[in-house]
Amino acid sequence: MPEEAPYGDKHTLQEKTVSRKRFLASVGAAGAALLAGSILPAEFVEAADQGTTNFTGTVQVNAPATSTTSSMNISRDANYSGGSPGYVNSALYVVDTVRNGVAAYEWGITSVLNNFASAGENVALYGQGNRHGTGPTWAGVFEARDHTQNAGTTGLLGLEVDVFANGLDTNHIRLGIDIVVGKGVAAGSACQAYAGIRLGPVNGDANQGSFQKGLLLTGSVTTGVDVQSNGTYAFRSSGTNNVGLDLSTGTHSDSAIRIKANESIALESTNTIKMKYNSSTQKIEFYNGSNRVGYIDTNGADHAL
């Protein structure tokens, strides 16, 4: 009987030796130099029916990065016709199954960048989707799916972004999420994106789900929303709601709503009927178009209106 390998592997040592040789041969001279000083598991197993090298254990690549090459390079050229829509093929496919009773933290893929450099653009995890055809393209997707069909008492998060530091951000360089728009081709025209952030149900189908709060701010925030852009509307509501703006449950010690002097508040959609405070006359003025139809003198005697 051939000797059995650990981890429940039923393949023989001879099969392991053959698969290990095939793997080392497949990486070539450059790969062999790359893997010098690295730790490869002994239990390489060749899956002949799929033409892949399967193994259990740990692969540890300790090659020093002394040039601009990558420590490990995976290349997949999907050059074929057909296939089944909805069936996913991957250059790298990772499955981490956490069984009941596990108390440790299981993270499917962990990338750690320790940056001691004083220049460059160093990123722990980067995804890039380059569209050269007409097909939809994503640079990254995060999906959290609950299969229990219960509300649950623990978190279900599609994405968590953390910024940990100390002291004040006097240079305004700490950003939780930075959404940038730019040209796809340097010589092309400027890019216009439809939305920086979009919240909605799957494929716009309201039967799929809804949000209790589209945007939720908690904790200590100096400015909840700061609009510094230049455009047509700073805020716009075009949906169907019971209340357009509700400030009734907040505490606003100075003023609930504040606008600059000489700017108006329109009372209908054509901006014809409006009111404003005129700082020159110190009057609250009411207009129908360009015609002033009444005013309140803020320096006048106290009286009923």
Question: How do the SSEs run, as a string of H and E?
Answer: HEEEEEE
Helix content: under 10%
Strands of the widest sheet, in order across it, are: 3-4-5-6
Radius of gyration: 31 Å
Could you tell me the number of beta strands?
6
Largest β-sheet summary: 4 strands, antiparallel
% residues in beta strands: 5-15%
Overall geometry comes to elongated
Q: Helix tally?
A: 1
Describe the structure.
The protein has 1 helix and 6 strands, in the order αββββββ. The protein starts with 12 loop residues before the first helix and ends in an 8-residue tail after the last strand. It is mostly loops. The strands form 2 sheets. It has a 4-stranded antiparallel beta sheet, with no helix packed on it. It has a two-stranded antiparallel sheet with strand order 1-2.
Task: Write a short abstract of this structure.
The chain has 305 residues and is largely without helices or strands. It has one helix spanning 13-34; strands spanning 44-47, 52-55, 264-266, 273-278, 283-288, 291-297.
Features:
305 residues, little secondary structure, two-stranded antiparallel ribbon, 6 strands, elongated, disordered N terminus
Question: Topology, pairings included?
Answer:
Elements: H1 13-34, E1 44-47, E2 52-55, E3 264-266, E4 273-278, E5 283-288, E6 291-297
Antiparallel strand pairs: 1-2, 3-4, 4-5, 5-6
Protein name: Twin-arginine translocation signal domain-containing protein
InterPro entries: TAT_signal (IPR006311)
